[in-house]
Amino acid sequence: MELSSRVTKLLNIKYPIIQAGMAGSTTPELVATVSNSGGLGTIGAGYFSAERLEKEITYVQQLTDLPYSVNLFVPSDKLFIPEKVEHMNAWLKPYRRALNIDEPIVNISEKQQFEDTIDMVIEKGVPVVSFTFGIPNQSILTRLKERNIKVIGTATSVEEAIANESAGMDAIIAQGSEAGGHRGAFTETSSNLTPLIGTMSLVPQIVDQVNIPVVAAGGIMDGRGMVASMILGAEGIQMGTAFLTSEESGASQLYKNAIQHSKETDTVVTNVFTGKPARGIDNEFIHKMNEYNEDIPDYPIQNQLTSAIRKEAAREGNAQWTHLWSGQSPRLAQCSSASTLMERLVQQANQLLNQ
Amino acid sequence: MELSSRVTKLLNIKYPIIQAGMAGSTTPELVATVSNSGGLGTIGAGYFSAERLEKEITYVQQLTDLPYSVNLFVPSDKLFIPEKVEHMNAWLKPYRRALNIDEPIVNISEKQQFEDTIDMVIEKGVPVVSFTFGIPNQSILTRLKERNIKVIGTATSVEEAIANESAGMDAIIAQGSEAGGHRGAFTETSSNLTPLIGTMSLVPQIVDQVNIPVVAAGGIMDGRGMVASMILGAEGIQMGTAFLTSEESGASQLYKNAIQHSKETDTVVTNVFTGKPARGIDNEFIHKMNEYNEDIPDYPIQNQLTSAIRKEAAREGNAQWTHLWSGQSPRLAQCSSASTLMERLVQQANQLLNQ
Fold it and tell me: Which residues cross the membrane (chains A, B) (predicted)?
């Protein structure tokens, strides 16, 4: 067994290691460092306007000539329910008052922003685009593929993996339940829950059902997780939390410290921050907001309603009122540079493969 | 890397493969077949009286001269709340009426039964005892160890693993969230939940914190899962669901069929059947009983209250009113004999190790 795979060939990278998008915490420096170290850096453009994305791409292109990717959030068809927004704004009032911030104006033009970022990705000749929260329509995928832009989907279940393959994706990220941040799910289980399948179960069951290469994600922090994933049949890995605490990450010191002082039992999956389920370190905001669970508007509304609260709380050093996305392996988090992390990862993986 | 490890030496077995106890579904034939195939068969004695356990041990000893183990449920200090039992009996009345069964008499002598089974294990010279739901008191562990009986604890978190090591356990089963059946947990997370850490995250974080050998459990069904677990640092694996659908298993055809027709998204963790969280295939009983969640008595009471209902429903072919424990990898379930399963497992593992 070796590290090169269909994933390294497809993406034209040396090692099958993808840095997860991590919208809000990725910097051009992190993206470029990962790519320059032989992996695939990813611009987490989930929340970006086309203008912001253009700036980030330009910056990354100045720092690396190697392949990188852009991760986009696929818009959903959820309805905008004004009453929920009204209720939620009432529940959020004490936080806004304490932090001295105003009620935001809600922007529901998610689809237009997505179309604009697709245009930008094509205009700038981005080599790889990955998608979270679903599969874009066929005309978008065709446009990307015509420009030889590689497309990667996200799946949290076998059903989602098959849907991604059928749509023409070049590869799939199999996101196990251990993963930090947003669940990439776009289907529900028989009990109307978001699928939370452990990486050990998810990867082989997906690999058995699709022909395109699978990239494992969820709980992977070092060479052990990398080689274990490849033994399960994955041809690459994606890591988020491992890169989030790296020097080049844009996460605040508060956020990095929270991960480094957490235990594997400290995270929960919650929709209170953005309206979509995501795994993060449990805190007061989650506990309080869980009481109003029926009033939580869907993504992207709840994200917009809580965004300024979270930013200001983090700025003031209040870890109890901000999101602290983390996977289930925080004890394995390191604080080195991303290049050192990449070097160690490859070295440990090679040792395990050759023992 | 090779299959022999501290676990094979400790347990005096050829391959580091443990068949999980699976109380209620294990047969002496299954236990003996696994042991005769080079693994460690386990008598799932969680619900057994000492008399029943004696019979099972005698039967297993007739079928194999090789090491086997007994799995016991450690009693907890939960209070018996008569009001909850009264309420639950009211909710269960329609099921009992439909199935024509009586209300059971509740037996709260869990501790005496546990002490009696410990005596029996010592009397019969059982080679290995594993524990679920906690750590027995020091005098019990000392008595077992004085007879050179190997003791294995179960951990669903790093904290539980450290507690097991401190208590003097010879090895630990690290039970990932993918695992079917009862969660072995005996602590709660910061949000008062049962720990549900994916195997990919749990194993390396436990391995880094203890010195005794770790056996991985949760989502492992074949050579891929076995070798991946060992790459993560485990020195053995425990499998339940994989053996549950084998020919020698005592699970009903209804139960086996349910697993073989399930998807990875079909299971949930629920306490409605026994009063302790356990992973099984979602069905009507779980949905209905979730409505009365505050009235569910703790284990072992709820187990006793629903036991006859589940047995009779299964006998009548009603999969909606019985427990169908399963891990998150039902798509990988096979229906061969346990010896064929063991052969295939070892062959695939050796192939992966030598590629």
Answer: none
Q: Using an 8 Å Cβ cutoff, are A255 and A324 in contact?
A: yes
Q: Is the ipTM of this complex over 0.90?
A: yes
Minimal CA separation from B158 to chain A, in Å? 8
Burial of A56 by CB count in 10 Å (0-12 exposed, 13-18 middle, 19+ buried)? buried
Residue B1 inside a domain? The answer is no
Q: Look at residue A181 and tell me if it is in a domain.
A: yes
8-state DSSP, B293: G
Query: Rounded CA gap, B184 and A346, in Å?
Result: 35
Q: Which helix (H) or strand (E) holds A39?
A: none
Residue B264: list chain A partners with CB under 8 A. Answer: 157-158, 195, 197, 201-202, 205
Whether B315 maps to a domain, the answer reads yes
Number of domains in chain B: 1
Q: Element (H or E) spanning A210, and its range?
A: none
Question: What does each of the 355 residues of chain B score in pLDDT, given as a tens digit?
Answer: 789 999 999 999 999 999 999 999 999 999 999 999 999 999 999 989 999 999 999 999 999 999 999 999 999 888 788 999 999 999 999 999 999 999 999 887 788 999 999 999 999 999 999 999 999 999 999 999 999 999 999 999 999 999 999 999 999 999 999 999 999 999 999 888 999 999 999 999 999 999 999 999 999 999 999 999 999 999 999 999 999 999 999 999 999 999 999 999 999 999 999 999 999 999 999 999 999 999 999 999 999 999 999 999 999 999 999 999 999 999 999 999 999 999 999 999 999 998 7
Boundaries of domain holding A33: 6-354
Q: Which of A200, A215, A221 to mutate to test the interface with B (most CBs of B within 10 A)?
A: A200
Of all residues in chain A, the one with the smallest CA distance to B219 is: A201
CA pair distance A231, A234, nearest whole angstrom: 7
Q: Is B118 among the domain residues?
A: yes
Residues of A in contact with B263 (CB under 8 A): 157-159
Would you tell me which residues 286-345 of chain A have a C-beta closer than 8 angstroms to some C-beta of chain B? 287, 327-329, 331-332
List, in sequence order, every residue forming a beta bridge with B74; answer none if it has no partner: none
CATH code assigned at A257: 3.20.20.70
Q: Do A282 and B189 touch (CB under 8 A)?
A: yes
Q: Which amino acid is at A205?
A: Q
Chain B residues touching residue A219 (CB < 8 angstroms): 198, 200-201
A269 touches chain B (CB under 8 A): no
B84: Cβ–Cβ under 8 A, 6 or more apart, which residues?
B295, B296, B297, B301
